[in-house]
Amino acid sequence: MIPPVIPIVPVPVETSGDSETVWLYEKRRQIYPRAVHGWFAGWRWAMVWITQLVFYGLPWLSWNDRPAVLFDLASRRFYIFNLVLHPQDFIYLTVLLVICAYALFLFTAVAGRLWCGFTCPQTVYTEIFLWVERHIEGDRIARMKRDAGPRSIDRLWRKGAKHAAWLAIGLYTGFTFVGYFTPIRTLWAESFTMSFGPWEWFWVLFYGLATYGNAGWLREQVCLYMCPYARFQSAMFDHDTMIVSYDPQRGEPRGSRPRSADPRALGKGDCIDCTLCVQVCPTGIDIRQGLQYACIGCAACIDVCDDVMDKMKYPQGLIRFATQNGLTQRLSTKQTWRRVLRPRVLIYSAVLLLICGAFVTSLAMRSPFRVDVVRDRGVLARMVGEGNIENVYRLQVMNATEVTQRFRVEVEGLDGVTVASQPDFEVGPAEARWLPVSVQIPRDVARLLGSGVHPVKFEVESVDASGDKSEVEEKSTFVVPR
User: Fold this and answer.
1) Is 219 within 8 Å of 31 (Cβ atoms)?
2) In terms of Cα–Cα distance, which of 300, 223, 291, 293 is closest to 44?
3) Which residues are 412's β-sheet partners?
4) Residues of the chain with CATH 2.60.40.10
5) How far is CA 16 from CA 13, 20, 22, 242, 279, in A?
6) Fewer C-beta within 10 Å: the chain N or C terminus?
């Protein structure tokens, strides 16, 4: 379903004689969202607390004498609790992004823009910044009166205090973001002397000012014009998607009336046209006009409308999560949910579960070390003492644990093949080490094989401090010269 197109109405700005100048783009209308309380508002604030406790808290959490989550770009190692990942493990990030994409498709097909309304960083930080604004400048009416009135000391100090608080939140957010790449306790100590490195300065300021600008100044403009999700969501919506909906059959014709009046006797619906649903909307839309791309699914209008219905002693649900088929066909809740769980949703769910299962299984069965075998291009195949043929290889061994591991190298695939160099070595915790390995075969075996390239297999066995053994096999080739 394609969201309705909002026409661009030219606004006349200047008239001179027979000519008229118009602007094709309307000036931004300042939105003053009203505070709202209710069931969905509680869930929205619960998500604010959960996401921010995770974001701000993880860098401070210690694990094995280091931050629990640390992306050490300098040493090219990524620590996530017990996991130690190297650049060769980039496939896990790819799978994680695929999981996030499928989860977004699934949630959108089921219940619209849940991500936007409850967990999107833009929504979360806008909610935090609005909370600061309300506590310093007051609620909607107080802010509107102050902005429309003359400049004063009261207005100046409130605006200054608000922006100072916004900047502090933004800069600490940038500081926390950098704390995922530089140990945050080291960063905290450096902050007292302002001795950050150039890249640390850049990202603290960039991320902090971006948070301040997006959540404090742009707000709904990010959702309306900068976020691509609002534009392609129609590809994932259909008439059985749960969305924030106004029930026109019950609400129309709208109009004010005394609280004790019977709306049916007056020929009116349940909507009293109080416009509170518009006043609480963070993007400033009127949900009574139907589905719109600017609706982020935050459900603030549901909370405030249910409160009005309670005061009017009408049933709740004039604005609610519902499907378009459910509204037009007057389906029951059971019938609506039966149609929500349609084949499209079941396929998304099955694929998502399959990918998640494979991802978790792969992590659980992941080897505690990785081995790459590379032929040493600087040393050609050659004949050594007693006529043996020698090839030299370079082994990159990456210890994916935080304990020292001892390794032993063996080679198979050719008769009489042996490791001529030291076969035993150690690799420190989370270390990646390059090692030269010489492999030889007897002269008689080389004559039987003949010149050319022959397959061999490297077997690298590790034994950690607890005695657990692991083995990795890597294929390569052995060259017999002419």
Assistant:
1) yes
2) 300
3) 457
4) 369-480
5) 10, 6, 12, 51, 38
6) C
CA separation for the pair 305, 363 (Å, rounded) = 47
pTM: 0.85
Whole-angstrom distance, CA of residue 304 vs CA of residue 280 = 8
Q: Output the 3-class SS for the chain.
A: CCCCCCCCCCEEEEEECCEEEEECCCCCCCCCCCCCCCHHHHHHHHHHHHHHHHHHHHHHCEECCEECEEEECCCCEEEECCEEECHHHHHHHHHHHHHHHHHHHHHHHHHCCHHHHHHCHHHHHHHHHHHHHHHHHCCHHHHHHHHHCCCCHHHHHHHHHHHHHHHHHHHHHHHHHHCCCCCHHHHHHHHHHCCCCHHHHHHHHHHHHHHHHHHHHHCHHHHHHHCCHHHHHHHCCCCCCCEEEECHHHHCCCCCCCCCCCCCCCCCCCCCCCCHHHHCCCCCCCHHHCCCCCCCCCCHHHHHHHHHHHHHCCCCCCEEEECHHHHHCCCCHHHHHHHHCCHHHHHHHHHHHHHHHHHHHHHHCCCCEEEEEEECCCCCCEECHHHCEEEEEEEEEEECCCCCEEEEEEEECCCCCEECCCCEEEECCCCEEEEEEEEEECHHHHHHHCCEEEEEEEEEEEECCCCCEEEEEEEEEEEECC
- One-letter amino acid identity for 117? G
Reading the block at residue 51, the tokens are: 């996401």
What's phi and psi for 194, nearest 5 deg? 55, 45
The tens digit of pLDDT for each residue in 454-463 reads 999 999 998 7
Residue 270 phi/psi, 5° resolution? -80, -20
From CA 440, how far away is CA 398, in angstroms rounded? 25
- Tokens representing residue 274 in the block: 């109080």
- CB 163, CB 256: distance < 8 Å: no
Burial 84-93 (b: 16+ CB within 10 A, else e): bbbeebeebe
- Give how far Cα 416 sits from Cα of 295, 375, 461, Å: 72, 20, 20
pLDDT in tens, 270-293: 999 999 999 999 999 999 998 888
CATH number for 369-480 (one of 3.40.50.1760, 3.30.70.2740, 3.40.50.720, 2.60.40.10): it is 2.60.40.10
261-288 as b/e: b if 16+ CB within 10 A = eebeeeebbbbbeeebbbbbbbbbbebb
